Amino acid sequence: MATGKINVSVDNIFPLIKKFLYSDHEIFLRELISNATDATLKLKHLTAIGEAKVEYGNPIIEIKADKEGKKLHIIDQGLGMTEEEVKKYINEVAFSGAEEFLDKYKDSGKDTGIIGHFGLGFYSAFMVADKVEIITKSFKDAPAMHWTCDGSPNFELKEAKKGDRGTEIILHIADDSTEFLEDNRISELLVKYNKFMPIPIKFGTKTETLPKPEGAKEEDPAPTKEVDNIINNPVPAWTKQPADLKDEDYKGFYRELYPTQFEEPLFNIHLNVDYPFNLTGILYFPKLSNDLNVQKDRIQLYQNQVFVTDNVEGIVPEFLTMLRGVIDSPDIPLNVSRSYLQADGAVKKISSYITRKVADKLASLFKNNREDFEAKWNDIKIVIEYGMLSEDKFFEKADKFALYPTIDNTYFTFEELQEKIKDNQTDKDDKLVILYASNKEEQHSYIEAAKAKGYEVLLMDSPIIAHLMQKLETSKEKISFVRVDADHIDNLIKKDDTQISKLSDEEKESLKTNLEEVISDKGYTVQLEAMDSESSPFIITEPEFMRRMKEMQSTGGGGMFGMGNMPEMYNLIVNTNHELVSEILNTKTAKKRERLIHQSLDLAKLSKGLLKGAELTEFIKRSYDMVK
Ligand code: ADP
Ligand code: MG
């Protein structure tokens, strides 16, 4: 029997481990199962290359909770440790056996999937245990060893009786950590961290129903048997080759990842690179709503099939954090700050690789099945539009497949749209005027007015669309986006047949005075325009610039300040060629004129959705009076 001092420089490392090194005590189990997995994978490798002359078999890892004894056991059938190895790998805290193994078997060992240093590794056990034992028997011909440590730097090492190869770690769970003896809590951890680890993990047993024997009666119960409860899928889809997977397999894996998601994903992207960094994974495009906030933190990050986190901020470009799926890469540094991550060269490469793969996938979907792509557009546009806004590289690619649907569901690419409207939708400066609506219902009368004149009206209703339009206007030549209610169509788009006002200058002067006397609301600027007699007499418009700035401010970014307090500014456009306007001008009694103006203004407000509250009540009363 040997006793000695664990070789650490500070005497009191254990309280430190416990309090400061990990905020998440629960990761101890992930660390110990990772070590058990490594021990098994190492043995697999050594038997494969003939260095270990033992039968590899079908090893599993077992987790056993002993609630009465307050002990948690992690048992593996891996390569075990000799006395020398325990001294070297366990007693030297700063020494990683995984690193040494990978170093030694550099060429043959690089695809073994060995997990190795996650952080503090084995010693994280002391976050939840006040005493830890290791009983281990090497695959080599050497006596089994029993190591015990009570949380002080003093350990004890003696020979043990253990016949079969492998290692058993026994944690004497501390009084403040008894949650880790509860079946539910353990299951929760195993599902969270170990669901896709490469060696089968057993936790308890379960009852399996067997087929009824031949000749059994209807009422006879089916026979059952107790089988190992294996909690993980050791060969998850992302570790396989894309060529070996069918659409059904991808969908099945999605359900495995998100058992509570009932909606099927729209499509997936299989990631697979090994140079200049190592990364595998599957990303899914889910159906996305317009709510940007509820759908974050869904992609799961793994390292060698061990779950690390579901916060991939800094690793995946922001706009893709709305996707789902897994990314597995041993090249992403862990336990470092987000700002460090973003500056890390490998992480930058990973991020731009993912962006490129997503853009390429979308481009091929667009090219190969445009109809289907159009059908999915509404569910994926938010990601694409967000990506175009935030990543220039993505913008370049997406500009070729991003779609601009019209109110009547015709989908144009930007280039197609330009081609379609270039001859009859330009303004005085020959700028292309792209008309759009953000709400079919609210802007209905304006949409109809534009359509009546043969113009295309797009439906642009994403929450960030104002930002994207701004970006398109600055990156493309001579275009401007104008919402249908931003001005009167005839003021926006150059026409050959300019209308001449039927009113003389004096008449206009007196009309304007009349109107301004009645309309006391300072938020409206009266504007007289000569339009065709078919156009509405009164139209309320809200200039594009102001409205868009406000929208941009409310959806973040834009860098605008002070805009929040801006009053609403509207133009009241009065069509001097309309019959009703002539009537207003020629009415003899001031009282009747006033009533006509009020009524017309209210109708214009109603059509813009601005008539509310007391004004609406009064309008309804006045209307009844007029029709009775
Ligand atoms: P790392 O996993 O990064 O090497 P750890 O602190 O987790 O660091 O483990 C230290 C070393 O202890 C391992 O590299 C391995 O050599 C040894 N070890 C730990 N657990 C086991 C185990 N279950 N079976 C065999 N060796 C183990
Ligand atoms: Mg480890």
Give a brief description.
With 628 residues, the protein is α+β, with helices and mostly antiparallel strands. It is built from 19 helices and 22 strands.
For this entry, give a set of tags.
36% helix; binds magnesium ion; alpha+beta; 19 helices; five-stranded mixed sheet; single chain
Q: What does the model show?
A:
The protein is of the alpha+beta class and 628 residues long. The protein is built from 19 helices and 22 strands. The strands form five sheets. It has a nine-stranded mixed sheet with strand order 1-6-5-4-7-3-2-8-9, covered by helices on one side. Strands 10-11-14-12-13 form a five-stranded mixed sheet, sandwiched between helices. It has a three-stranded parallel sheet with strand order 18-17-19. Strand 5 and strand 6 form a beta hairpin. It is elongated and about 115 Å long. About 1% of the residues have low confidence. The site of adenosine-5'-diphosphate has 19 residues, from helix 2, helix 3 and helix 4.
Number of helices: 19
- Stretches where pLDDT falls below 50 for ≥5 residues? 558-562
Task: Supply Rg.
Answer: 36 Å
Number of strands: 22
Q: What general form does the structure show? A: elongated
- Small-molecule binders: adenosine-5'-diphosphate, magnesium ion
Oligomeric status: single chain
Return the structural class. Answer: alpha+beta
Q: Name the beta content range.
A: 15-25%
First-last Cα distance: 110 Å
Q: What does the average pLDDT come to?
A: 88
